[in-house]
Design brief:
The protein is α+β, with helices and mostly antiparallel strands. It contains 15 helices and nine strands. Helices cover 51% and strands 13% of the residues. A five-stranded mixed beta sheet has the order 2-4-7-6-5, with helices on both faces.
Amino acid sequence: MDKHDVAATLERFSVLLELTDEDPFRSRAYANAARLIEAVPEPLDILIAENRLSEIKGIGKTMETVIKETFANGSFAELEAAEQKVPQGVFDLLKVDGLGPMKAKSLWKEANVVSLEGLESALKKGTLVSLSGFGQKTLEKFQTSIEFLKRQSGRHLRHHAYRAAVSLREILNNIRGVKEVFFGGSLRRGCETIGDLDIVVITEVGAVEAVHNSIASLPEIAWNDTKSPLQKGRYAGAFDLDLSVCSEETAPFHKLIATGSKTHYADLCDAASRLCFRLTPGTLLDASGKPVAASDEASIYRLLGLDPVPPS
């Protein structure tokens, strides 16, 4: 685990405390600890190894023990006990815009709604209007949010994907020979929701194969395919990855292709073809098949007779 995983675990327990009518002060304490851990600049493993968690203002002895247990085991005893008290689907309700722990608890306790499907069914039947705090505008907002979630099935909110990207960058930067970890795709384009994480790992010249093999052996990532140039896997059980490794000299081409959509890539290939060039994910070849050098992404656009396009 890293600090982001530990913070997410503490935040989850904070929500569980709200859902199970525990002391609200404890709930706020765990939510605050999650924010403190997320914000700490040093790696959490170093703080724990050097016994310096107590240096973080707001982290007391009890919380320090919980953080250490979570970092070592991925959970802690009190969290596991609390998990048994709440139906799993109640957490799915929290994905709905405007539906926080208190309303989720009301739906669960007063209307026996414990899933998104159950909430949608109750909205259609009109059985929630009698609940305190569930006015017509609120219910309409829930319905709109559910429809959005259904359209975005398999995608992640941007801040969740960004947190995963930060965690992955830390892991990949620790591999010898890695010069840069670049995230393209919908994350770079600033999309509201993110599908796959498109990653380009840039290495020292001559280190591509070694870095590729090191990444393939990372225990944090469940790989589907590590033999092809584009490695496919899953991180943290939720984020699908498309990852390639390249040298610094071909990095501009890999960054360009990893950023844009498939349609954009096809348009660039057409533009290259009109100039008797051939664009591939790693090179631009002239009419004689000789690679054309590019210093950055903007220079590739100019070589194709186009104005540079910002990620969007």
